[in-house]
């Protein structure tokens, strides 16, 4: 299992120790949740913070834009050196155009769906994607309880991907811990985002390991 800790739950009074822990750990990616207070009812952090994070972090960056008009920020995400740029289906009208622009910028492209958004909205673009990020909480805040019906959604998405021949990885974000992570792994998830479970743990590296071995 690939593990992508969410920086949203780190200590923003002093990020360096948490980033050094990420560098030491077994995690595969660092998940950056960018919130604009418009698409979601919260504001997180912007590009000045992410530039400093990218300078310290040695893990690939998985940038999740929970913002309106994500297509306007492709070059800035590229300049971070991000591996993935993930944007919301609900926030973007022209999915193909945006995915193509992300690829042209040299990044992998992902689309995220809120918990109540059906998978059918991806049927005509699934073959172009490198990642599908399923939200297992309503986006906007960390530490929310896991929405259990997302497990079945992962299974259905796994079938859609396999039948289409898409190479997209399934990522799940929200309420992930060892228990929910095991359910998601069994359903076919490839990547797990975990915020509170990792950064709130007495031993964050052990928490990452517990997801890594699922």
What does the model show?
There is one protein chain. The protein has eight helices and eight strands; from the N terminus they run E-H-E-H-E-H-E-H-E-E-H-E-H-E-H-H. By secondary structure, the chain is of the alpha/beta class. An eight-stranded parallel sheet has the order 1-8-7-6-5-4-3-2. The longest helix is centred in the C-terminal third of the chain and has 15 residues. The protein is globular. It starts with a strand and ends with a helix.
Describe the global form. globular
What is the radius of gyration computed over CA atoms, rounded to a whole number of angstroms? 16 Å
How much helix is in the residues? Answer: 25-40%
Mean of residue pLDDT?
97
Structural class: alpha/beta
Strand order of the largest sheet: 1-8-7-6-5-4-3-2
Oligomer: single chain
Roughly what fraction of the amino acids lie in strands?
15-25%
Q: Can you count the helices?
A: 8
Q: H/E order of the elements?
A: EHEHEHEHEEHEHEHH
Low-confidence stretches: none
Concise synopsis of the structure shown:
This protein has 214 residues and is α/β, with parallel strands linked by helices. It is built from 8 helices and 8 strands.
What are the main properties of this structure?
214 residues, alpha/beta, eight-stranded parallel sheet, 8 helices, globular
Topology:
Layout: E1 2-5, H1 15-24, E2 30-35, H2 47-56, E3 61-66, H3 74-79, E4 84-88, H4 95-104, E5 108-113, E6 131-135, H5 150-164, E7 169-173, H6 178-187, E8 191-194, H7 196-199, H8 204-212
Parallel strand pairs: 1-8, 2-3, 3-4, 4-5, 5-6, 6-7, 7-8
């Amino acid at each position: 299992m690939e593990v992508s800790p969410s920086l949203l739950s780190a200590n923003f009074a002093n990020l360096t120790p948490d980033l050094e822990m990420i560098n030491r750990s077994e995690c595969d990616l660092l998940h950056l949740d960018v919130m604009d207070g418009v698409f979601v009812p919260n504001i997180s952090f912007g590009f000045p913070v992410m530039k400093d994070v990218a300078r310290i972090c040695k893990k690939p960056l998985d940038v999740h834009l929970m913002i309106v008009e994500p297509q306007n920020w492709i070059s800035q995400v590229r300049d971070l050196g991000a591996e993935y740029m993930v944007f919301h289906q609900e926030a973007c009208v022209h999915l193909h155009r945006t995915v193509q622009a992300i690829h042209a910028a040299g990044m992998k492209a992902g689309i995220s769906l809120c918990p109540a958004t059906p998978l059918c909205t991806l049927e005509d673009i699934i073959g172009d994607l490198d990642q599908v990020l399923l939200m297992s909480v309503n986006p906007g805040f960390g530490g929310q309880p896991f929405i259990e019906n997302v497990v079945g959604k992962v299974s259905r998405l796994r079938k859609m991907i396999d039948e289409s021949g898409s190479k997209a990885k399934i990522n799940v974000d929200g309420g992930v811990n060892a228990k929910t992570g095991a359910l998601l792994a069994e359903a076919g998830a490839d990547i797990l985002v975990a915020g509170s479970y990792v950064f709130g743990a007495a031993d964050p590296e052990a928490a990452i390991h517990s997801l890594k071995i699922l």
